[in-house]
Amino acid sequence: MGLQSGQKLLVAADPRVLLVTNTLFWRAALLFSLIVVLLLALLPVADKVVFSGQDKLVHGITFAALFLLSKQSLPAGASLWPIYPGLIGYGVLMEVLQNLTGYRHMETMDLLADLMGLIAGHLMVELVRKTQRKPQASRL
């Protein structure tokens, strides 16, 4: 049995290490998340609004999470930039389908919130990368 593209062979006492590096697992998690988010986006919404901008916040958080799942789904060292058009296209599809339901409406501000979520997810990735590369200061 050979390794799939993007998978690493690690010898570790802890099997969770293999789970974290297994792109097949992350791709399945991403696909599942994309399906669930789309289904939830097409359901009728209750008129219960806790605060103004609540919908945009949900869009941002959702797309930040989708960015992180997408990043994990890529082979190690792959560019993160292709995630943007893929998930923005997904956001456009979601808005078009919502508009076709008759009880949901297409909102261009949702797409802006999606983009802000993608940027937030990307910034989180870069922050983690930066802290992992930071050399430890000597305490002499």
Describe this structure in words.
It is a single chain. This protein is mainly α and 140 residues long. Helices cover 64% and strands 0% of the residues. It has five helices and no strands. Helix 4 (83-101) packs antiparallel against helix 5 (108-133).
Quickly describe the structure.
64% of the residues lie in helices and 0% in strands. The protein has helices at 16-21, 23-41, 54-73, 83-101, 108-133.
What is the mean pLDDT? Answer: 86
What is the gyration radius calculated from CA atoms?
18 Å
Helical amount:
55-70%
Q: What is the H-and-E element order?
A: HHHHH
- Based on secondary structure, the structural category is mainly alpha
Main sheet makeup: none
Unreliable residue stretches: none
The fraction of residues assigned to DSSP E strands is: under 5%
Shape: globular
Between the first and last Cα atoms, what is the distance in angstroms?
49 Å
Question: Helix tally?
Answer: 5
Task: Count all strands and give the number.
Answer: 0
